[in-house]
Amino acid sequence: MRLVKPKKALGQHFLKDLQIARRIAGTLDAYKGMPVLEIGPGMGVLTQFLLEEGHDLTVVELDRESVAFLEKNFPALEGRILSADFLKLDLSELFPQQFCIIGNYPYNISSQIFFKVLDYKDNIPCCSGMIQKEVAERLASPPGKKSYGILSVLLQAWYDIEYLFTVSEQVFDPPPKVKSAVIRMTRNTRTSLGCDEKLFKTVVKTAFNQRRKTLRNSMKPLLGKDFPEYGHPIFDKRPEQLSVEQFVELTLMSANYLSTLE
User: What is the distance between the alpha carbons of residues 189 and 167, in angstroms, rounded to a whole number?
Assistant: First the structure.
């Protein structure tokens, strides 16, 4: 069996530990019967267990060599291998109903993958898989920690995020320079933020652009220096101290003021 050579340009680190692959597949046990999209299957180490557990599986792979390997070695995937860039897919066209996402995600685009998941949040009840440990800690971080940031807030607004377990560098070929971790994101019950979503994103990003400063200073690029509510106690805080609900409150205050300037 001719194996696929990992390509640095694609951020490929192939998982070789079957027990870990089986544990990752098990993160979707509660969603059997729902379509599953695996991102970056490579040589199918995770794929084999997803198929074994009976998932309705489609895979998307950018590397043509990996696609050829999967076509040859996984006949069960006939017609279900997308040779494409996940970030460019129209997921609503592929999956008109709800579906789950899983993968040993390429570390160089993991944040972009999660931003895309957010775009389809009402159709993706669960997203799980392996990412860089530092990114996993950031996603799951509660307010008050240095690791809490833009992606933490935007994802936690819509998903409950579990840091499941840490993975050693040595179970990959080639070994990455960092540890990895497996997370699971489960859609929460929130149906609306209660504020403008686009402005919410802008407020969060503006606040964290100068994360060492209090909000009184970090929000000036958006609200200007004459914003009348700077005396409110929320502006004494730094962005990492705010919960999702407090960012919603900050967004509503911002919206009320900005509407007066129009």
Answer: 30
